[in-house]
Amino acid sequence: MKAAVLVFPGINRERDMARTLKLVSGRAPAMVWHADTALPPGTDLVVVPGGFSYGDYLRCGAIAARAPIMDAVRAHAAKGGLVLGVCNGFQILCEAGLLPGVLMRNQNLKFICRDVHLRVERSDTPFTRGYNAGQVIRVPVAHGEGNYIADGKTIARLEGEDRVLFRYAAPDGMIDPNWNHNGAINAIAGILNDKGNVLGMMPHPENHVEASMGATDGRGLFAGLVQHLEKAA
Amino acid sequence: MTKSTRKPSRVSTPKVTPALVAAHGLKPDEYERVQALIGRAPKFTELGIFSAMWNEHCSYKSSKVHLRTLPTSAPWVIQGPGENAGVIDIGDGLACVFKMESHNHPSYIEPYQGATTGVGGILRDVFTMGARPIACLNALSFGAPSHPKTRQLVSGVVAGIGGYGNSFGVPTVGGEVRFHTRYDGNCLVNAMAVGIAAKDKIFYAAASGVGMPIVYLGSKTGRDGIHGATMASAEFDDDSDEKRPTVQVGDPFSEKLLLEACLEIMAKDCVIAIQDMGAAGLTCSAVEMGAKGDLGVTLELDDVPCRETGMSAYEMMLSESQERMLMVLKPEKEKEAEAIFRKWGLDFAIVGRTTPTKRFIVKHGGKVVADLPIKELGDEAPVYERPFVETPKQPVVRAGDVTPPMNTTDALVRLIGTPDLCSRRWVWEQYDHIILGNTVQRPGGDAAVVRVNDGPKALALTADVTPRYCEADPFEGGKQAVAEAWRNITAVGARPLAVTDNLNFGNPERPEIMGQLVGCIRGIGEACRALDFPVVSGNVSLYNETNGRAILPTPTIGGVGVLDNFMASVTLAFKAPGQTILLIGETVGWLGQSIYLRDICGREEGAPPPVDLAVERRNGDFIRTLIALGTATAVHDVSDGGLLVALAEMAIASGIGAKLERPPIAVHAYWFGEDQARYVVTVEDGEAGRILDRAREGGIPARAIGTTEGDALTMAGERPILVAQLRESSEAWLPAYIAGTRS
């Protein structure tokens, strides 16, 4: 795996992400500065990490989506290259037009940090091949704006094309408004683009990867990506 | 970059009159001292500089003589009080840099921004010394829930703390929240930051070398926060809301950039000295760098990056705009350092030089607006030995004189849902407490445990004080605050190393308040000495009173301990049914100043529980050994609410219940007394006998009090209560209160 982690001013989970990529793949990712215009040659996975790019001052992700490096990311995605956006990264990918929809303030208007349960909807994607369809995983969220919404047509299309990869769920996997902490439509926690090579998700799988820290459910996502890329190579 | 205009300010500088001097918070005798020191009347800007340096907040003039009595050294202390933060050696070439600081006055006036800038300020203190922040904690005190301002203050302060820490990217892992009517007019916001640095790469404030460039870094200077430190050194009255313009606005985004830029240029070895611009901004930072290095400083205000045009020298010197730093650079590294700052989009300007004269000279628009002796500005600040009266001792409340108004089970359900004992989940879920991926024990336990780098080393962090004890007996209360912090660190298995103290009190010009301050400091000193737990940094916040009504004396203790291996730490949750529950420490059933006496019996009175430091140490060392041996499966210290509340918390955290034996003393005193130096420990059934023997040999009071089992707490002779019901009671109050459905 040759991963590149984008670093925008104000991003703050880039170290968490880099540590996890190294831990799972054995190889440290390249850290790519927002003002650069090219990805390192041979990059096979671009990761847009979490944080508060540009302070989230205009609208989450809106400024980062227009940073110089993003043209290279769009080109990478257009060629079918894998892109993973987590939290602020998901917001940036939506603002950059790589994913549909938008993330609004959480329903209770508060920042929420807690472990949540996600139902993995499909296992036949590069991002979820480390899980079984229907499996419930526990990973943390930490966001103030994770309430996913899009127009009815877009939602119908996302659902019709099975592009919702993760949903907030009860520990037994049932979809229940009481377990949808941010109020996202259809309990959507993560979606794929139409070509299936760009994933955006609000939760932080990179923070649950070590047995010694008591939680490993996030590891499957990265282990799956490593497998996928090894097979492709 | 907007530079200040070279034109003289449109506002003519006011004449220095007695009224103007008084408005600057300087007493007539202090003003005479200024004149004697410089041999003339100060100019307007000079008056502002003196007022900034000599106010209580910056000069510690009321507390200094007493603070000097605190123990500040130990073999593992690298830097004690007097720098931006304290520094201790945590082994393997690493140092822990930490400090706690208050932002009380601003938070009451503008809760969100007051709290954000409190967090921002303390984070800067830590990374100024070259440390990357790895955790934040906070201790918050609010007025009675029924007070009309409390709800808004809680919401605003919590959102502000989260708003800054979450964006900056540091986990907020612990702290405490309390409510009491004595904070109605003055809330307390104490923020603590903890960072890690290489032991041999610590940066200090003292400048060295003559003619070295003094560089201004970070955000631009605006008109915000002018005289913030002076405000923080005065009492409030009914017009305090009009002080809103003295509150600064926080920008965590700029601070994150400042952090990365500072650490990058420190790594490139560009820095001689560095000081953050906190209270009294440019004035305080420039004077400290010069004075500590025995050098003079000349500042050219025309070169200071300003947010607005037409700012006067006075405004620039006293602005408390946030996210700014002052640095003395190695001249040959100037270009390299500038490039790093430009990369991060931050302002970088050479605004002065060090000089051999020991004068603090400030120039603006071609004119010298201040020319003062730099050492005297700091060192010659007045120091007061203010008169004090000792707090009268309270009578001991005997258990036999307290009639339980309800049965044990009802009292427990009620206590676990009271404002002071209920779950703080609503608070800490608004803080990102997991970022950086090192939070081993999250909020809600005795101490937070945070892994250092990739481990296995970890820090145990806590913030503690019991103000109602301090009010009833400042000396015992001061001791108890330290002992409680030490105990919380012990309860997760860590070795307590050092503390930071944040002393919050009322008006020191009142002898009874001064008596509280003196008593608490004596108690803190005694406990820190007895427990080898030195004070390495701290902050004093006085004048926390409104219309003559002071807060409860609140000396918050922030404690740091170390674990060699984070995997050896234990949590307070019961682990499995069938384990034996042990109570370590002696229970006489001390009800005076207990939450039970106050919240169940409606009596806020009596002497607080005494703290025997030798016993604390003995019991704590025993607990730490049990944890190190891997015998303790769960540990929880017994504090607010007493034994039964501690057991309920262990049950709630796990969902596992317990069967508890009949008390050997009066039931209410046994279950709810707040005797000190106690812990609840669970062990495998077969281990209990051996451990009790061992305790007996060591002279440590210990007894088996029950067994974990089922889904309810069952006290012999009482109605059982489901753990789920306790959890519901514990979780309900805070969210309902904030939503306005409960008061």
Taken from the alpha-carbon principal axes, the silhouette of chain B is: globular
Mean of residue pLDDT values of chain A: 97
Note the beta-strand portion of chain A: 15-25%
- Number of discrete helical segments of chain B: 25
The CATH C-level name of chain A is Alpha Beta
How far is the first residue's CA from the last residue's CA of chain A? 9 Å
Uncertain segments of chain B are 1-11
Percent of residues of chain B in helical segments? 25-40%
Describe this structure in words.
The complex is a heterodimer of chains A (233) and B (743). In chain A, strands 2-1-3-4-11-10-9-6-7 form a 9-stranded mixed β-sheet, with helices on both faces. Chain A has helices at 14-25, 69-78, 88-95, 152-160, 219-232, and strands spanning 3-7, 30-33, 45-48, 82-86, 102-104, 112-120, 136-143, 147-149, 164-169, 188-192, 198-201. In chain A, α1 packs across α5 (219-232). In chain A, β1 (3-7), α1 (14-25) and β2 form a beta-alpha-beta unit. Chain A has 233 residues and is α/β, with parallel strands linked by helices. Chain B has 743 residues and is an alpha+beta fold. Helices cover 34% and strands 23% of the residues of chain B. Chain B is built from 25 helices and 28 strands. Chain B has a 7-stranded mixed β-sheet with strand order 8-10-7-11-9-12-13. In chain B, strands 23-25-22-26-24-27-28 form a 7-stranded mixed β-sheet, with helices on both faces. A 6-stranded mixed β-sheet of chain B has the order 1-2-3-6-4-5. The model of chain B is unreliable at 1-11 (pLDDT under 50). Chain A binds chain B through residues 9-10, 12-13, 15-16, 19-20, 51-52, 54-57, 110-114, 140, 142, 144, 204, 206-207, 210, 212-214, and chain B through 159, 162-163, 166-169, 251-254, 256-257, 344-345, 428-437, 440, 451, 454-455, 566-567.
